[in-house]
Amino acid sequence: MARTRLYRNGDLVAEDFPIDDISEHLAAEGTVVWLDLQSPTPQQYDQVQEEFGLHQLAIEDASSPRERPKLGHYRGHLFLSAYQASFDSGPGELTVCPVSAFITPRALVTVHGDGFDVDSVVRRWDATAELAPHGVAYLVHGLLDVVVDGHFDAVQELDDALEALEDKLFEETPQAVREVQQRSFRLRRGLSHLRKIVLPMREVVNGLTRAKLVDEEIAPYYQDLYDHVLRVTEWTESLRDFVATILESNLAVQGNRMNNIMKKVTSWAAIIAVPTAVTGYYGQNLPFPGFEHRSGFVTSAALIVVLSVTLYLTFKRKDWL
C-alpha cells in the first residue's frame, strides 16, 4: 500500500496519486511530495531508490526491523529511523513499531509496518497547515512530533502503573505479593525497552535542527520538539530509579514479613514449651510435692495455664503475636 501527497507553495493540491507521477510533480517549482509505503516489497524499494537516488545502505537500514533510532547523512538525502511506542497498562506490555524516513530537499518518503498509525501523522499535518510553506521540514516535524508524543504518553502510562504498583506493596494477601513481583519485572522490562528507543532521539532531533532543511522560522518548533525529547528522557531515567526503589522496597517488606512470621512461630513454640516442660518435670519417676495426690495434678495444671497465659500476654504486648 502507498499513500502520496503533493504540496505546492505550502498548499495541499493532490493526494493518493500514482508513484510513477512523482517525477513529473517534482519537475515543477515549489512542490513537495510525501510518499508513504506500508510493508513495501523489494520491487517498491527498487522503484523508490531509482526515483529519489537513495543510498543502498539506507535502503538496507529501512528494511531492517531492529535498527536503532538514528539520523544518517548521505549524499543528496538523510535517513531517519525511529519507533512509535504505546503502553498497555492491563498486561503491562510496551508495543513499539519502527518507522523509517528518507528525507530529500523536496520529498519525504516514510516506510513502516502495519502497526504504525500514519493517520495520526496526517492529522497532525492538517492541524499545523500554517507551517506547510516550510516544505519537507514541516513534514518531518509533524512525523517526529507524533512519535515523541507517543513516547510521552507511554512514559505517563508507565508512571501511573508504577504508582499503582507502589500502593500494593503493603498489602499482605498472597495475590497482592505475587502481583507486585510479576508486574514489577514486566514494567521494568518495558521501561528498559522504552529507554532504548527514547535516549537516541536526542541525537536525531538535534541533528535535524542543525540540518540545512530547517530554516530560522521553523527552528523554534524543532527546539520545542527537542525539549519534549529531553523531558521524556529525564522522565524515563527517573522511572528507572523508581522501579529500582520499588524492587528494593518489596524485598524489605518481604524481609519484615518474614521476621514477623518468625517471631510468631517462636512465640508459639515458647508457649508450647511451657506445658511440655511442666508435664515432663512432673513425669519424673521421683517423689515431688503432691506426688500421688490430687493436689499435684491441680498444681501442674495451674502452672501450665498461668505460665502459658503469661507468655501469651507478654508476646502480644510486644506485638510478637
UniProtKB/TrEMBL annotation:
Q: Which UniProt keywords apply?
A: Cell membrane, Membrane, Transmembrane, Transmembrane helix, Transport
The family this protein is said to belong to: Belongs to the CorA metal ion transporter (MIT) (TC 1.A.35) family.
Q: Where in the cell is it found?
A: Cell membrane
A Pfam family reported for this protein in Swiss-Prot or TrEMBL = CorA
Listed GO molecular functions?
cobalt ion binding; cobalt ion transmembrane transporter activity; magnesium ion binding; magnesium ion transmembrane transporter activity
Descriptive protein name: Magnesium transporter CorA family protein
The record, for InterPro entries, names:
CorA_cytoplasmic_dom, CorA_TM1_TM2, MgTranspt_CorA/ZnTranspt_ZntB
Q: How does it sit in the membrane?
A: Multi-pass membrane protein
Species the sequence originates in: Dactylosporangium aurantiacum
